[in-house]
């Protein structure tokens, strides 16, 4: 039986569970460290994150915070739990695209030829990653954001909802690109960037 443990009984967790169900997982169990959380979208919450090691299942982390996601995914991998890649059947990926363990690709997302997606990433609903992009580990490309061709996004960076990154640019590690921002120049210093064109605010 295909059985998946999802750490994080949140809104994001619900979407991850739905993708897993559509990929043929027959049993889905949630694990969450908050108190008093019994179920998530009809699936049972059966314990805290550390309890997953007592169950015979694959495991994935459905937590938006990239540092927490990385810590927990590394714990799963070190504990010998298989961390799958989840891709919604209505996402479109070119055949040569490589995707790292623990990455989740939502419905309507498109990833074009020559691109690589690292570990523990979220390529959210209707986001697009065009040709020859390099998305490093634990990046989140939010709902409806668009990366043109040959864009690099560094480790742990979060591209906000509806943001746009123009072609041939790099966004370095540990950045937050705000909702609706348009990045027209490479970003080489970590921080929070918003607006059109995107400028650093923090
Ligand atoms: C399925 C899903 O839900 S996926 C998740 C999608 N969610 C997102 O993408 C969230 C993106 N988050 C944002 O855009 C946030 O506003 C952030 C992270 C950029 C900034 O948040 P904070 O650090 O809390 O900044 P704060 O709200 O204090 O704003 C600071 C200033 O920047 C401005 N600002 C904040 N965000 C933006 C933005 N996206 N575009 C333009 N200006 C912005 C604010 O108006 C404020 O300006 P002021 O000082 O003149 O009043």
UniProtKB/TrEMBL annotation:
<dbReference type="InterPro" id="IPR041561">
    <property type="entry name" value="PglD_N"/>
</dbReference>
<dbReference type="InterPro" id="IPR020019">
    <property type="entry name" value="AcTrfase_PglD-like"/>
</dbReference>
<dbReference type="InterPro" id="IPR050179">
    <property type="entry name" value="Trans_hexapeptide_repeat"/>
</dbReference>
<protein>
    <submittedName>
        <fullName>Acetyltransferase</fullName>
    </submittedName>
</protein>
<feature type="domain" description="PglD N-terminal">
    <location>
        <begin position="4"/>
        <end position="76"/>
    </location>
</feature>
<dbReference type="Pfam" id="PF17836">
    <property type="entry name" value="PglD_N"/>
</dbReference>
<dbReference type="InterPro" id="IPR011004">
    <property type="entry name" value="Trimer_LpxA-like_sf"/>
</dbReference>
